[in-house]
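Let's practice the habit of predicting before peeking. Look at the sequence and jot down your guess about where helices and strands might fall. Then scroll down.
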Amino acid sequence: YQRTMLTIKDLTLTYDAINEERTFSEGDTLTGTVTMCLKKDTKVKSFFVKLKGDANVRWSRGIPTYQITYKAHARYFKLKYFFIPENTKDTEISKGNHSYKFSIKIPSGSLPSSFHGAHGRIVYRLEAKLSRSWRLDSNVKQEINFPTFTNIVPVGQVDKDIGIFSKRSFHIVVSCEYVWTFFILYIYFSIGQTVAVTVKVKNTSSKDMTPKFSLRQNVTYRVLDSTKYSWSEICKLVGEVIEKKSEKTVSCTLKIPPDTILSIQNCEILSVEHYLKVYLDISFASDPEIKFPLVIAPSSFMLNPGPWGIFSGQGN
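Done guessing? Here is the structure:
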């Protein structure tokens, strides 16, 4: 990234990629270079690179003439690498081209993934800043893509002996006219993967019914005791019709789109949750449904996912 000023001809900030996706996560070391071209000898008050992680939420309620605005901020870290320290005498840098290397270690621990939403965002930003006396600061910024997996926690209690999520059972009763059983392998998925679902329905009713599948995303924004919700349907699929007085097994696959937002469970002012909704569409009747919580994780998490699970459910 490049910025042009009057005295400073060019100010450029670049960082070194550590993988093909150019992403970073907890504990990584971010290295790079700041270059600039000075038109003349210049006295500099301070010169540094800053890396920080912040979360912000904001929304308003009310009518145009009277609105209440809710906002909150969370700071995860703020790190600086100095080329010329602050609070020192002006340092003169000669005319010409200059190059400065930097290295900043991202803190370990649980940090939320990057996020941009309608009412909030989580941003990790790298900034080079040069300050001069009686002059406006010169700076250049870059946003860092930060998909993290330390915020991923188990959705259910794992029974290690049999390898299933034993505390997740689902039952739906509607007039005792049909029985349906379904299975979904795993609860952790990465972008681009496929969610495979199988539904077995015994329809003893006098109505046809259609199994439908929907992958959904819920975002919750929080400011103290106030909350703002938004949801979206990521993808959906309609299964084959199950005729009255019949039995059928229906399978479907839903591919997670590349622009899907990762699950976030460790930010105090916003969260992102995903679930698979499976329901039976019945004309002129309430549609029975079941929701499976899913976790959308970075692809790096899928390389070493830990224990897997099988969700199953039955309704009658």
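How did you do? Residues 158-315 form a domain with the Immunoglobulin-like fold (CATH 2.60.40.640).
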